[in-house]
Design brief:
With 432 residues, the protein is of the alpha/beta class. The protein contains eleven helices and 21 strands. The chain has two domains: 100 residues, Urease, subunit C, domain 1 (Roll); 301 residues, Metal-dependent hydrolases (TIM Barrel, Alpha-Beta Barrel), CATH 3.20.20. Strands 8-9-10-11-12-13-14-15 form an eight-stranded parallel sheet. Helix 6 runs parallel beside helix 7 and helix 7 crosses helix 9. 52% of the residues are buried. Bound molecules: zinc ion. Zinc ion (ZN) binds next to loops.
């Protein structure tokens, strides 16, 4: 007797949909079969897609700063579950020395303990010095990634070339991947008089393109491994794929976010432009088109979810603006509308493999965690703000081609046919 049977669905297995049933026992996928077996609970997924629970490798819940982001782990994970996400990866507070890792890890883990879905963390560094000590120590915590910034020298978060090289050199040993926020620091203009309409010139796309090519060169020289977060510019992607094609999707992995596909920077000259402020910013129509046409080079989709309220965003000058938007609840709707099933791997198995979550997560096969998402493509939906603690979504009013019907974490419904049942997420990289 199985605990749960998901029957009659179109089930996504190893890159394609099959008309088959998935059976769950003790939180794991226990059988995949056309036959009907008895189960404590049977869920009829006729005409629905049964997809591996989505993995969002890039979220910021409860992010501190001058203005604290409004989704904590409780509301953020709930909103994510409504978006079909069953695992997210957040970031430890930035550290400069290995002695601070323990506190950074424990404080974040404590904050995350009320999450309703599973989670993991990226280690974050800010201008680190003894890189080797940090790398050694992170192994104790079983972390698989180190995030750095090539910019934000104004707040002391920039990591400089010698340390970037060192981090990349160590990464060639295969214990972790370097994650990089890539913008060329001296091409960022933080003029105190800049307003929202100036965001495109404050953080121009050329700053991303130039620095990305530079980092790709370092990856090649060091034989390291790098994951570029939130690529925003189609031009960056074009140049990378032209000049470093052998690295793309092998040792230089590119993440982009749904908003760079769905929105463009004409928003910044509109009255509500402040609601769309993030770094890097939205790009021009032609850049966005270039990105959309080269989706095949995008390895992973992360949301960079960092939500604020309209009130938080109500500032005249960019210098006072908390940067970031919420997106976890609608990322699949947006990407599925654009790419159909071709978006699934970038939101499931790819991040699972890169960040040490595979084989437990990211796919539907016997033995994997029963993390599943049921998507109803028989209805068109108009996007609304949803379940985030923020009072708006940048996708408000957009029409999409489906709706997350249910989200299952390790065999238990967190969302069932639109109703929130809650859940208890766990840290998935717990050292053995
Ligand atoms: Zn981010």
């Amino acid at each position: 007797m199985y605990d749960l049977a998901i029957i009659n669905g179109k089930t996504y297995i190893n890159g394609m949909f099959e008309n088959t049933n998935a059976y769950v026992l003790n939180g794991k996928i226990a059988a995949i079969d056309n036959k009907i077996y008895p189960a404590v609970k049977t869920y009829d997924a006729t005409n629905k897609l049964v997809i591996p629970g989505l993995i969002d490798p890039h979220v910021h819940f409860a992010l501190g700063g001058k203005v604290k982001s409004v989704d904590d782990f409780e509301t953020g994970s709930k909103s994510a579950a409504y978006g079909g996400i069953t695992t997210f990866i957040d970031f430890l507070d930035p550290i400069s020395k290995s002695e601070d890792l323990n506190d950074a890890f424990n404080s974040r883990k404590e904050l995350a303990s009320n999450s309703c879905i599973d989670y993991s963390f990226h280690l974050t560094v800010m201008n680190p010095k003894e890189v080797n000590k940090i790398v050694d120590k992170m192994k104790l915590y079983n972390l698989k990634s180190i995030k750095l910034f090539t910019t934000y020298s104004d707040s002391g978060r920039r990591t400089y070339d010698p340390e970037i090289k060192e981090l990349l050199e160590y990464s060639s040993l295969g214990d972790y991947i370097v994650m990089a926020h890539i913008e060329k620091d001296d091409l960022i203009n933080l003029n105190a008089d800049f307003r929202v309409a100036d965001l495109p010139i404050s953080r121009p796309s050329v700053a991303e393109t130039k620095e990305a090519l530079h980092i790709a060169k370092l990856v090649k020289e060091t034989k390291g491994k790098c994951y570029m977060v939130h690529l925003s510019s189609g031009e960056t992607l074009k140049q990378l794929t032209e000049q470093y094609s052998e690295l793309i999707n092998t040792s230089f992995l590119v993440e982009s976010c749904p908003h760079y596909f769905a929105l463009t920077n004409d928003k910044y000259s509109q009255e509500d432009g402040k609601l769309f402020t993030m770094a890097p910013p939205l790009r021009s129509e032609s850049e966005s088109e270039l990105l959309k046409n080269n989706f095949k080079y995008i390895y992973s989709i992360g949301t960079d979810h960092c939500s604020f309220t309209k009130e938080n965003k109500n500032n005249k000058y960019l210098k006072d603006m908390p940067m970031g938007i919420g997106s976890v609840e609608h990322s699949f709707d947006i990407m599925y509308k654009l790419y159909g099933e071709s978006c699934i791997d970038a939101m499931t198995i790819n991040p699972a493999i890169t960040f040490g979550l595979y084989p437990a997560k990211g796919h539907i096969n016997i033995g994997a965690d029963a993390d599943l998402m049921i998507y109803d493509t028989n209805i068109q939906t108009i996007i609304e703000p949803g379940h985030s603690a923020s009072d708006y979504t940048v996708y408000d009013g957009m029409v999409v081609n489906g709706k997350v019907e249910s989200t299952i974490s390790r065999g238990k419904f967190v969302v069932e046919k639109g109703e929130f049942l809650g859940g208890s997420g766990k840290f998935v990289l717990e050292s053995k």
